[in-house]
Design goal:
The protein is of the alpha/beta class and 252 residues long. The protein is built from 4 helices and 11 strands. It has helices at 14-28, 64-67, 224-233, 247-250; strands at 76-82, 89-98, 101-111, 117-118, 128-129, 131-140, 155-157, 178-181, 207-210, 220-222, 241-246.
């Protein structure tokens, strides 16, 4: 499979790295006040199963409003199905396109903003933004898990991603792996880049990152194996996007 985009290793002065980290991490992560994962025993991956056979040319559970926002050249979709508008629980499904048909590849239990979802995200509202966004850049504290260097999403490895040690210990590894969701950011830069084209009030630094077992500040969090799989699989040549929101909004 042809894949494009060179890998990028972030090497920055310590002072600058720290500044970027504080700006980005305060927006994305940290203790959210959520009491833990309320889905004990839940079986992930149910999103969209009942409608998968209805029309293979469409992403299951996604209505015309958001279906039409998926770029025509996108051949990988990360769908985040939130349990409810005010729920921190969600299911992530990776779909890949073969010919004109979408195929379900993998699914995982996940978390989103502690207070759920919003179509008008603002800084510190503890809700994840609903919408369709491209996925262009990745990074983290750990080395790129993709063994084929020079392929996949550009990856910025830097200690500046490390969560502050004054956060509770369950949050320390949140940013070992991150994939930037292109909401209010400049594509082609490290996920840590604090630039927000729509202004700081609209929030930013919305990422896919590693899960700590409960809701986030606004990001979507997944288990470590899921993040490793996505980082090995998402391909710039296949123009990956994320379609995210609670189930009712996504059906619109």
């Amino acid at each position: 499979m042809a894949r494009g985009g060179g890998r990028r290793t972030a090497v920055a002065m310590a002072a600058l790295g720290t500044l970027l980290a504080v700006t980005a991490l305060s927006a994305c992560g940290g203790p959210s006040g959520d009491g833990g994962d309320s889905r004990a025993g839940r079986t992930p991956g149910g999103a969209g199963r009942s409608s998968a056979a209805a029309d293979p040319t469409r992403i299951p559970g996604v209505g015309d409003r958001f279906q039409d926002r998926i770029p025509g050249d996108a051949r990988q979709v990360v769908a985040v199905y939130g349990d409810g508008r005010d729920s921190a629980d969600s299911t992530v499904v990776l779909y890949t396109k073969q010919g004109s048909a979408w195929h379900r590849a993998r699914s995982w239990a996940a978390h989103n903003g502690t207070k759920g979802w919003t179509t008008d995200h603002h800084e510190n509202d503890k809700r994840s933004p609903v919408g369709v966004f491209t996925l262009s850049d990745a990074g983290g504290v750990l080395p790129d898990p993709d063994p084929a260097l020079g392929t996949g999403l550009p990856y910025s490895r830097s200690e500046s991603f490390a969560a502050p040690r004054w956060w509770a210990k369950p949050y320390w590894h949140d940013f070992d792996y991150v994939i930037a969701i292109d909401y209010n950011r400049v594509r082609g830069t490290s996920p840590n880049d604090p630039t927000r084209p729509e202004g700081t009030s609209k929030g930013g630094s919305i990422w896919l990152h590693m899960d700590h077992g409960s809701g986030t500040s606004a990001c979507v969090s997944l288990p470590k194996p899921a993040m490793e799989y996505l980082l090995r699989t998402l391909d710039p040549d296949r123009h990956p996007v994320v379609v995210m929101g609670d189930r009712e909004h996504l059906k619109a």
